[in-house]
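Archive transcription. Copying these from loose printouts into the bound notebook so they stop getting lost. Printout 1 of 2:
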Amino acid sequence: MRSTHLLATLIALIACLYSPLSIAQPKLTVVVVVDGMTQDNLNKLRPYWQAGGLRTLSEEAFQTTIAFPHHVYGGTETTATLMTGTTPSHHGIMGDWTFNRAYRTTHYVLQDDQVAGIGTNLQLSPRAISTTTITDEWRIQQGIHAKIYAIGLHPQTTILMAGHAANACCWLDPNTYKWATTSFYSEGLPTAADAMNMSDRIAILSERTWTPRLDISMYTSPTKDEKRRLFNYLPKKHFLQTPAANTLIIEMALGMQQTEHLGEDNTPDLLLLQLTTQSPKATSDMIVSAEQEDMYLGINQDLGFLMEQLNHRIGKNNYQLLVVGRPMKGYSAQTYEMANIPLQHFNIDRAAALTSTYLMAIYGHERWVDGGYGPFIYLNRTLIEQKRLSLETIQRQVANFIMDFEGVQVAYPIHEAIRSEYSHSVYRKQAGDVFFQLQDHWVLDTNENTQYDHVIQSAPTAPLLLWSATLRTFPEKELDATDIKSLLINSK
């Protein structure tokens, strides 16, 4: 009996030693969100990777494909989903912009007049995020000594990555190409960002001509024009869509690691980065040109440099790296044309105007519609209430009217939409009175001057790669975009 008891105890001890819970959490977690990165593109380019970060990840990382459980428009709603572990119906971010009924205009969804821009005239904050984010949960679990920073190309994406609880964040102002931030975060502009602004490094990168890094014959998807004349860009004009911008993000990340001593103590730190595969002429997330492929080659090199430096600075066993794609442009018009399906455009402003005319014919010459934005028609609720009319009746009439528009798949009064299959896509507090969904080959244009040449799939997917040098167990099931938060927060 005694030997049996000792054996059981020994087995229990061994189990504890090899349990994921017994392994210390890495001192630094780096999350990289890559705009437009797809699994198909990674699969296509994997045989051609030279040494670099994507090559290492393809060989050593846990890999899966995540699905988005809500409709994607190619805006910040995807970042919010990745960072909060919830859908727009809960986190409140349905896109880059939101409609203001009182002024009948649109504004940035993160617009916040209570804060000031630092190095920018934008007044933005994460207050519109109605749930906790990865950074918030990180702060709750790790406490005040955890260091949390976000670095990005664009303000809204960067702030969504930073969440409510980051020490600071910074992004590249599109007018000055200098690092900027918001006064919402107590540390203001990070020290490393301020130092780079004072140096000439940004100017050097922004003035460096971007040409193919390989012979054009070595690319898998050069266009006919690229074969005749190599692509050639002066980054100053397209800087945020060039490999140089990604390189700058990585350099800032390493500068931040050095100045803030990320990953150098026993409290786990968090660093979030935004990179992009979206080149100037990209009309799709699919690689259809050498310049798009060159963006991936640059990311492979940049991630490789990041990992090499972190290996040297804090040790290979002391950090983990999560890289995840973010759907941006889906399929191009050319893709549909190859299938003999022309891309069609649905203009929301015109739809709102026709809806207003329709209601005038029924109820009299008044302004019955405040406007249209995204997949919503916003009714003049104040007028409807003054006239003592039934809001639900008018919502139903407008939904039936919209259903007859060419290109509309379904239309619902908002109270029905939040109970429909599209419920995950609708945030009730910012939604309009009538919700509609277009057919697959139709594109929603916001005004007469906006013509999109791509369409996002109704249920896009994205690649996820999680690398760690320490012994770990990873999920065996396929993940949703909403699972990343729990994957990082609960991982040990």
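Printout 2 of 2:
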Amino acid sequence: MEEEGTLGHTSCNRPVQGHRLPFVIAASGAGTIIEWYDFYLYGVLAAFFSTQFFPKGNDTAALLASLATFGAGFAIRPFGAAFFGRLGDLTGRKFTFLLTIMIMGFSTAVVGVLPTYSQIGILAPLILVTLRLAQGLALGGEYGGAAIYVAEHSTAAQRGRNTSWIQTTATFGLLLALAVVGLTRLNMSSDDFNNFGWRIPFLLSIILVGIALLIRVRLQEPPLSTQLKAAGKASTRPWRDSFGNPENRRLIILALLGATAGQAVVWYQGQFQALFFLGTILGVKFTDVYLIVGAALVLGMPFFVVFGRLSDMIGRKPVIIAGFLMAAVTYFPIYQAMTTRAHPQGTFSAAAGKYLLNGAVAAAQPEILPLIFLVWIQVVYVTMVYGPIAAFLVEFFPARIRYTSLSIPYHLGNGWFGGFLPLISASLLAATGNIYAGLAYPIIVAGISVIIGSVLIKESGKTKIWDEVGGHPDDASTVAATG
């Protein structure tokens, strides 16, 4: 029997490894990209949605209500993680993430045909919140399945690199949402976009989900999961085994406070909040904002794989902790430099939450290249903390309850600590009138994760996840992955 991380020596293994593992990564990642695209469309259009689905008359209140609705999808994610995590541990990885992508696609498509507040009144925001909750439930089950699926097809020596491709999907989904919304807005008048054009990116999801389902239906269960069930070692009570066991409960809390909470605030600050800060607060026009953030995302995305691979070499923990620390120390000077380079016009109005010139919004005069660089730095922090996190979480929990146990801290961190960052930041801004007040939140949370992660979390990079089924007889990537 070979050690995990070694290659099989049969001649048939080499071509299978060359073809099947890339397919596993592509099939898992394609669906996850589309789920993130669906989920983040609302975030890209959050300021716009405040005029479509909420009462007019108080712009600040409408924006906060819109951000709260955005946050509702995040709030429900841990419950989706608990439900679909249990389902994934009981029935398998494949069935669960086929189901979640169908729920996400349906919910997104309905947003594309939903009547506005002016058409059906209070029912509009109520239905919108319901759809956001359905999206959050679906996403709560999607990520864990995709991350585990790839990790359980990977060797220990390449798990960080292979799962880092899944980590690119959230950023790629945001980039796709920016591109689709931007192209739609550029190819029609402002009135047409306000009347019907905003629905097009949501309806496009129907096609994308159909493509993802055609790809994913070819997948089979991961070999580790299959052997676990065959050996009778799979959990029949995932919730009780995850939360009722004191040691595993401790692992969930440590993973949340020492890893995923910090990872979440760095992710949302570096990508979403940078977008909101430039466009809504500083008054940079949307074409420039999409160009700045989009370019930074494209330039930053390769670093997911760079840091995932680095975590295979030096460990998950030092890479992730370094990202937390660098972000916490540099956020204030970065955002001060962003304000300087954006050249907002007029003076900041605490009541309006944006810069005004003679009582009206005037477009900022941004320096594009310096702003791309400043956002890119934040995206690199994102890649440091997010690139290795899937491998870390898979290795941190036992296989028999991995789907449930992994999903809970991930979605508590990203759903609550990260998902409410835009709302918390906007509330701190409204309360203090200081455009940098919202930075206190991600800095504090990242700082807490630095302390807890450094002191209490052990390195997971050398974990042999096949030990639960008596060791790995061959390279995971050589196991047939398609039907």
